[in-house]
Write a structure and sequence with these properties.
By secondary structure, the protein is an alpha/beta fold. Helices cover about 30% and strands about 25% of the residues. It has an eight-stranded mixed sheet, with helices on both faces. Strands 2-3 form a two-stranded antiparallel sheet. A two-stranded antiparallel ribbon has the order 7-11.
Length: about 230
């Protein structure tokens, strides 16, 4: 059986051990989770050439949007008021363009952490620049509530998963094409899904971190690959 190709928009780094030049990267946990699910991850180099983005994604069967730095507030019509980190407007523009193209071509998408934020911004939503309850979300394990019968619940096989969070931002105004399917007890939006697509799901946490030992987290990657087939 053909292994689906999963596009992963890569991150930019000015340096890495063993390289003389800037690099394009993706965390190994994401790659391992895609491999376990039966997919072949393809790291897509950031570019502002829309034709290159379109032709690259045309060869792929699904997309995984990964975590990273903060999205520039300029991308959702705001001014910066909080301490942000890792802001890169070139990368924002690349990921937003890739996300929009994938949506337009009905490609299945799993959007993780920053990926969920980019998904919301790409569709016209806004972000909370810094959560008042950040300590409850920053490098911690906690439970959330998932809407029964949602794509998320079906993929994970549970409505009360235990998750690993590592973020200080979250969705503020939800894009009209998205529906909330997961929440934290403090009201933070933890998961969304696209209303009109076959399978576009965003999660604010990092399922790749615990997927090796937690079937509910690996289930997200398994379901992405299933739809990519």
């Amino acid at each position: 059986m053909k292994q689906p190709l999963i596009a992963i928009p890569g991150k930019l780094s000015p340096e890495a051990v063993g390289h003389r030049t800037p690099v394009v990267s993706c965390g190994q946990n994401y790659i391992d989770a895609v491999h376990r699910a039966g997919g072949l991850p393809i790291i897509v180099s950031p570019t502002n050439d829309r034709d290159v983005i379109a032709s690259t994604l045309a060869r792929c069967d699904g997309m995984l949007m990964i975590g990273g730095g903060d999205v520039s507030p300029t991308k959702y019509g705001a001014t910066e008021w909080a301490r942000l980190s890792g802001v890169n407007e070139f990368l924002d523009e690349f990921e937003i363009a890739a996300c929009n193209h994938a949506i337009e071509t009905e490609m299945p998408i799993l959007a993780v952490c920053r990926g969920q934020q980019v998904l919301n911004v790409a569709l016209g939503g806004t972000l909370i620049q810094h959560l008042k309850t950040t300590p409850d979300h920053r490098d911690t394990m906690h439970g959330i509530q998932v809407v029964p019968g949602s794509r998320l619940a079906l993929a994970m096989g549970t409505t009360d998963p235990f998750i690993h969070s590592l973020h200080h931002q979250a969705i503020e105004n939800l894009a009209s094409d998205l529906a909330v399917v997961g929440t934290h007890q403090d009201g933070t939006i933890e998961a969304v899904e696209h209303k009109g697509s076959t399978w576009i799901v965003g999660v604010q946490w990092h399922p790749e971190d615990t997927a090796r030992d937690d079937p509910s987290q690996q289930g997200l990657f398994n379901t992405l690959i299933s739809h990519a087939r």
